[in-house]
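Structure tokens please, single chain.
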Amino acid sequence: MVKMDRINERILHELGQNGRISNIELADRVGLSPSACLRRVQELERAGIITGYRAVLDRTKLGSGFVAYIGVGLNNHSKASQEAFERAISRAPEVRECHNITGTIEYLLRIECADLPSYKTFHTDMLGALPQVNGITSYVVMGSPKDERA
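Here you go.
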């Protein structure tokens, strides 16, 4: 178990801001020698606290700048129904995130696609065709003044 002290928290903060920061720069920012900093980063990786590094992409420039969140209710609350829904969703490239949540619906999806017509195709031909789906509520993202996802 890794002890989460102030230095480890600073390492995680710096890596969260820039996962490509050099070890030398990271060490300087957190007040460690490069070798001590590298050991801590490797320990955080081995412990599973750091699970990977990602590039932050500008989806608009990649042609998928239309973003919507979708609340999905299932008509059957069985494990088999949930697993079938999750399998289908995992194959849909438009679905960037899928969260099983509590409340009046079972799932919250984050969808990214090119535009409104492509979203309508996804909504109707993919999501609406799933036999497990009972209800769909769409929330179209108009802007994201704060987005810290990596």
